[in-house]
């Protein structure tokens, strides 16, 4: 009996202690729960911060997750109101209207008891719901209210972010300094607007803001932030973010999320980049920090740690360098594409002249050899723009000049490699080497995080925020063209040795492997590209096999592409949300019946691409005209160069035909439209020209018109 009593006492103590510990833990958790305070500072960049001028921000960074935030919304300039509305919706949103030179400040809300109501909010919400992103403005505040929490806004911009779908916030103060110290603990979410940097630009008007003026505004931001931090409860979670641009200069901006045990980089499923999140991620991050479910209308994803810097200073330098590289790359794109277009047009003019003129003797051979070399340079250009990111060009005193010089140097090295060995005598061998190097580099890069594509003038840019991982449209077009020309070159080697069946197998095997790289969510993650790629692969294989191509083949290939990418997207959708790519998200939208908005937006972007990308439009038209007038119609230009190339290397027809099919279908199914055939033809036509002039030279040598080549 005594033993039973002792056992009962022991069990009671054990379970009692367990229950007591749970109760104590729950009480502690409840007592430590505090508000989430989101402080928005329009225009704040990492190069604004240092321990002397911004000591409070610097100390906060020492216990926070750190990142850049890409603030692109609907238009080319994200003004404060657009940034705040995007945070409110968790989707790209805007106030509407034209893009200003200098952004204005948000209008103050109308007082309503202890809170406030944003005037015209119903109209703003309806306009964004009708917009191309179908942004549900008010999602942030509504989610807090549905979870039983209260919202507070300090400052006009904060009211736009914290308002629910009726435009209301529960508590409002015109400035953070006016918030009673006891108010912070009574709300679930507090949004604070610190607009001093923006005010500095408004005071300057049309004049440029000097470094001294900007530094003074940033110091004022730091002092006002200190006022907020000293009045917050110890359990508060603090987010500081540069929620918008201030002028037409687009940048990446500051994000800090505290508390953390020590400085750490942040990332999210939206970007998959260390130290980078999107503006829409702020909505999901705030709601997750408040332990509130994220609504389906919010496309952003909560951030998570991704590595630790050695010090706050190291993080600030690294994130500042990332912004500078993005700015330089962004502003270099237009002059680069103009120069690239001009170079291609000159190449076509020189090619037409070389084929048309009746050059004599050694002079003709030199002209044809020079034309071939220049053509290979044009085809190697996209790869050279990737390889330049192996070098720290953004840290140069003259980064743009350094970048362009390095691109030219890499281009020359690639062509030298293509013409270095005995293979230079072949019709398509040098072009195959250029294509193979492009194919391998692009594939390895996208399979290892697309670091070379990042901030490349032919890749993607975090400020533009069209894409953050996988293949960009231009990169896909270059990759697919390189794969098909590489397959054609390998097929040529096998066919000339009597192994046609093996050549077809090699084309299909290489194409299948390249298609996996394109469609796999963690690699290429390319929706439209997967659909466009299969027809090009099959057409290349059919031509190598000597088979005729019918419309049934093309339609069947497109259907196969839809099945492949649909399967990839569905498998991606089965993964946890934090690991999904945009493919999985799109599969979820299809299952939920919400995909129409996305498809309509992409179709509209495809149609608009012709006018919005004049350089690539001109490139596409010029390449097609040159292909038709200078190469396909030899009688008019007195040079049957392409037919000679087909005669000496029949597989060239397969590579060109496959690349043309993929680029044209890609034009229809990709949202950037004209960029796909523009860059595909900018590689395919120079490679074809290089093969054609070499075939013409060999034909002339055989006819005794040109001296035979030695060495």
Automatic annotation (TrEMBL):
It comes from the Bacteria. The keyword Transcription does not apply. InterPro entries: Alkaline_phosphatase_core_sf. The chain crosses the membrane at residues 336-355, 367-388, 400-420, 427-448, 468-495, 502-521, 527-545, 552-571, 616-632, 652-669, 675-697. SUPFAM superfamilies: Alkaline phosphatase-like. The keyword Transmembrane helix applies. Keywords: Membrane, Signal, Transmembrane, Transmembrane helix. Residues 1-26 form the signal peptide. This is Uncharacterized protein. It comes from Actinoallomurus acaciae.
């Amino acid at each position: 009996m005594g033993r039973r009593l002792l056992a009962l006492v022991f069990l009671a103590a054990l379970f009692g202690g367990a229950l007591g510990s749970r109760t104590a833990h729950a009480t502690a958790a409840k007592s430590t729960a505090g508000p989430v305070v989101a402080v928005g500072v329009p225009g704040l960049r990492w190069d604004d911060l240092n321990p002397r001028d911004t000591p409070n921000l610097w100390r906060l960074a020492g216990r926070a997750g750190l990142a850049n935030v890409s603030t692109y919304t609907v238009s080319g300039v994200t003004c404060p109101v657009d940034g705040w509305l995007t945070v409110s919706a968790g989707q790209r949103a805007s106030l509407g209207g034209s893009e200003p030179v200098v952004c204005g400040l948000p209008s103050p809300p109308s007082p309503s008891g202890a809170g406030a109501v944003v005037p015209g909010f119903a109209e703003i919400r309806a306009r964004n719901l009708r917009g191309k992103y179908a942004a549900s403005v008010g999602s942030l505040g509504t989610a807090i209210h549905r979870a039983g929490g209260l919202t507070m806004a300090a400052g006009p911009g904060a009211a736009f972010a914290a308002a629910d779908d009726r435009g209301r916030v529960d508590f409002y103060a015109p400035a953070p300094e006016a918030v009673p110290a006891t108010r912070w603990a009574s709300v679930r979410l507090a949004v604070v607007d610190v607009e001093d940097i923006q005010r500095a630009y408004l005071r300057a008007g049309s004049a440029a803001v000097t470094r001294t003026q900007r530094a003074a505004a940033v110091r004022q931001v730091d002092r006002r932030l200190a006022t907020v931090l000293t009045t917050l409860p110890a359990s508060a979670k603090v987010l500081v973010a540069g929620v918008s641009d201030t002028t037409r200069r687009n940048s990446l901006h500051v994000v800090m999320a505290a508390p953390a045990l020590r400085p750490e980089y942040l990332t999210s499923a939206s970007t998959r980049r260390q130290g980078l999140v999107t503006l829409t991620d702020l909505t999901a991050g705030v709601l997750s920090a408040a332990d509130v479910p994220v609504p389906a209308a919010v496309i952003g994803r909560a951030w998570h740690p991704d590595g630790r810097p050695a010090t706050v200073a190291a993080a600030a330098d690294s994130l500042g360098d990332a912004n500078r590289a993005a700015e330089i790359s962004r502003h270099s794109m237009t002059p680069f594409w103009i120069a690239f277009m001009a170079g291609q047009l000159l190449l076509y003019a020189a090619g037409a002249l070389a084929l048309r003129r009746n050059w004599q003797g050694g002079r003709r051979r030199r002209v044809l050899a020079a034309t071939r070399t220049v053509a290979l340079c044009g085809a190697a250009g996209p790869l050279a723009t990737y390889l330049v990111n192996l070098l720290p060009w953004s840290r140069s005193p003259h980064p743009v000049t350094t970048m362009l010089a390095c691109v030219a140097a890499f281009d020359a090295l690639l062509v030298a490699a293509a013409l270095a060995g005995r293979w230079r005598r072949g019709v398509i061998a040098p072009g195959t080497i250029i294509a193979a190097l492009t194919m391998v580099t692009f594939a390895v890069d996208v399979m290892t995080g697309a670091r070379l594509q990042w901030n490349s003038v032919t890749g993607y840019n975090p400020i533009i925020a069209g894409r953050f991982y996988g293949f960009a449209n231009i990169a896909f077009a270059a990759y697919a063209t390189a794969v098909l020309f590489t397959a054609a070159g390998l097929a040529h080697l096998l066919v000339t040795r009597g192994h046609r069946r093996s050549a077809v197998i090699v084309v299909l095997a290489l194409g299948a492997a390249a298609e996996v790289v394109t469609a796999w969510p963690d690699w290429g993650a390319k929706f439209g590209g997967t659909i466009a790629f299969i027809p090009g692969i099959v057409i290349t294989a059919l031509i190598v096999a000597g088979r005729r191509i019918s419309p049934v083949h093309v339609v069947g290939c497109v259907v196969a592409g839809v099945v492949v990418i649909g399967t990839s997207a569905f498998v991606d959708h089965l993964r946890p949300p934090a690991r999904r790519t945009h493919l999985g998200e799109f599969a979820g939208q299809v299952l939920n019946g919400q995909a129409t908005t996305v498809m309509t937006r992409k179709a509209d972007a495809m149609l608009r691409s012709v006018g919005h990308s004049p350089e690539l439009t001109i490139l596409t038209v010029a390449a097609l005209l040159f292909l038709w007038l200078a190469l396909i119609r030899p009688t008019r230009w007195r040079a049957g160069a392409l037919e000679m190339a087909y005669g000496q290397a029949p597989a060239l027809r397969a590579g060109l035909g496959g690349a043309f099919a993929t680029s044209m279908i890609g034009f229809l199914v990709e949202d950037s439209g004209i960029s796909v055939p523009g860059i595909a033809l900018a590689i395919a036509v120079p490679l074809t020209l290089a093969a054609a002039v070499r075939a013409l030279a060999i034909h002339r040598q055989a006819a005794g018109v040109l001296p035979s080549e030695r060495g």
